[in-house]
Each structure stands twice: as C-alpha cells, then as structure tokens.
Write a structure and sequence with these properties.
The protein is of the alpha+beta class. The chain has helices at residues 46-60, 63-66, and strands at residues 23-25, 72-77, 87-99, 102-113, 119-128. The chain has a five-stranded antiparallel sheet, covered by helices on one side. Strand 3 (87-99) and strand 4 form a beta hairpin.
Length: 129
C-alpha cells in the first residue's frame, strides 16, 4: 500500500492499509562528564507520547486535519521508556468512515524499540477531515 504524504493526502485518495511515514525519535542526551552523576531521566509520559504520535500524523496528513477539534489520539504506554531511548513509530490506516456529513479516518500507530522491535506503546487515532 502507498505511504501517505501530508502534501497530497486527501480523504478521497485514502485507502485502508495505507502506511504512515516511519518516524524515528530520540531526545538528545549530553554526554556525562567525568565525576558527575548523570541526571535522572523520567519515563516518557502519555502527554509526550501523544506529541510523538501527532508528529507522525503531521508527516502523513495535512496539519489542519491533525489539529482539527474532532481529531482524537488515544495513546497508551505498554512498557515505560526514556526520552533518550531510540524508538520508531509506524502506523497505517485501519478504517475510513463517511457518515452524517463527517469524514473520519482511523489509524493505528505502534512505537517499537530500535533493538529487536519490542512494542512499547500504541495509539488509536480518529482523524476528522
């Protein structure tokens, strides 16, 4: 299936199975200095994860639909991970609905570790066009 691109994606051209672009995320950590303890990192929160999910959505859909008031991101952390961990986000269109004048696209996003691809988080998204 085709990979979506924000510059050309329209409701009529979407199909179930279309892929979202892959997004690799990590937050830079400055190297630890000799004799200084490394700062404590807190695991990624659901709020930050939602930001990651919106970032991948912005690569596949126009900003106006990602930020639409009826667009919903339901993110869930399965295994805690740190902001400095390298993770990749991928996803696909899993549904397309047109009813009562509303045009909705359902997507599923998964977040995997770089070492072996263990799923650490997931999100279900409903995008309103």
């Amino acid at each position: 299936m085709p990979t979506l691109w924000a510059q050309t994606t329209e409701f009529g051209s979407l199909s179930v199975g279309d892929s979202l672009p892959i997004l690799v995320k990590f937050d830079f950590r400055p190297p630890a200095k000799d004799g200084v303890a490394t700062p404590q990192e807190n695991p990624v929160t659901v709020e930050k994860l939602t930001g990651y999910v919106k970032e991948i959505l912005m690569k596949g859909f126009p900003q106006s639909v990602v930020n639409h008031q009826d667009t919903v991101v339901d993110a869930e952390i399965i295994t805690p991970f740190l902001p400095g961990d390298t993770v990749s986000l991928s996803g696909a269109v899993v549904g397309k609905i047109e009813e009562d004048g509303r045009r909705l696209v359902e997507c599923r996003v998964v977040v995997e570790t770089e070492d072996g691809g263990a799923t650490v988080a997931k999100a279900n998204v409903v995008i309103s066009f």
